[in-house]
Specification:
There is one protein chain. This protein is of the alpha/beta class. The chain is built from 11 helices and 9 strands. The protein folds into 2 domains: about 200 residues, 2-enoyl-CoA Hydratase, Chain A, domain 1; about 40 residues. Helices cover about 50% and strands about 15% of the residues. Strands 1-2-3-4-6-9 form a 6-stranded mixed beta sheet, with helices on both faces. A 3-stranded mixed beta sheet has the order 5-7-8. Helix 5 crosses helix 6 and helix 9 packs antiparallel against helix 10. The N and C termini lie far apart (about 60 Å). Keywords: Isomerase. It holds the Pfam family ECH_1.
């Protein structure tokens, strides 16, 4: 089994770890295939209630491994094929019903932005930095960046990041909405784990469905979203977990009303 991405599942939590620290976790051809395979494995595992995405080493992800691409002798068609494979994994995670939290340290560059934005909740180190660099080497956005980045920070700021040679710090990323919260470097992992544990200790399936509705809704007609919402809440209402939680909520509401 490849060790470019590590996967462990324990107590309902799937931990997915980028593991090419010597290359700043840049994704080469093999790692891209591993990413796709892990995405399908995790999202089809009924025992998984939440996902934690993190990385080994000083950087989160430097995007695609441009050196590997340049020295492989690959033609444009092969680069397109590799992108499709990685995109399969991104789409699988984004459209799944598994809530995903990312623990982000160090640099995030190029396609690493898209891989980071696969997560629904992002805890970043106060030392993290974020940069595009696509156009600097004559390439164009991939790994979901052209869709996920403007969805997170708006089209105008996405264009600013992609069309200028700027690097933003964690404070700016938080202000722009690129990350959810910022923590001290030594607290990022524990905070991300705390977020995942909150989901798992509560109605994680409901959190996952809420994530799915938001993520898939942007690409559909409003009427289709309403139909999906109605079907999803009806299905959840029929579960034993929801019945117990709804009953507890109703009892607490009655007690407050009579006290």
């Amino acid at each position: 089994m490849s060790d470019s991405i590590l996967l462990s599942v324990e107590g309902g939590l799937a931990r997915v770890t980028f593991n090419r620290p010597a290359y700043l976790n840049a994704m080469d051809f093999e790692m891209g295939q591993r990413w796709r395979d892990v995405a399908h494995e995790v999202t089809s595992d009924a025992s998984v209630g939440a996902v934690l995405l993190d990385a080994a080493g000083p950087a989160f992800c430097a995007g695609g491994d441009v050196v590997a691409m340049a020295t492989s002798g690959a033609a444009g068609a092969q680069i397109t094929g590799a992108a499709h494979i990685i995109h399969d994994g991104i789409r699988t995670f984004v459209e799944s019903d598994k809530p995903i939290v990312a623990a982000v340290q160090g640099a995030v560059a190029g396609g690493g932005l898209g891989l980071m934005l696969t997560a629904d909740y992002i805890v970043a180190s106060e030392k993290s930095t974020f940069v595009s660099k696509y156009a600097n080497i004559g390439l164009t956005p991939d790994l979901g960046v052209s869709t996920l980045l403007p969805a997170a920070i708006g089209q105008r700021r996405a264009l600013q990041l992609l069309l200028q040679d700027i690097t933003i710090d964690a404070e700016t990323a938080l202000d722009w909405g690129l990350v959810t919260e910022v923590a001290a470097p030594d607290a990022v992992a524990s905070r991300a784990a705390e977020v995942a544990r909150f989901w798992l200790d509560n109605a994680t399936a409901a959190f996952g469905q809420a994530k799915r509705l938001i993520r898939t809704g942007a690409a559909r007609a409003f009427a289709d979203n309403l139909a999906d919402e109605a079907s999803t809440i009806g299905t959840r209402f029929e579960t034993d977990e929801s019945r117990l939680r709804v009953a507890a909520f109703a009892a607490a509401s009655r007690k407050r009303a009579t006290s």
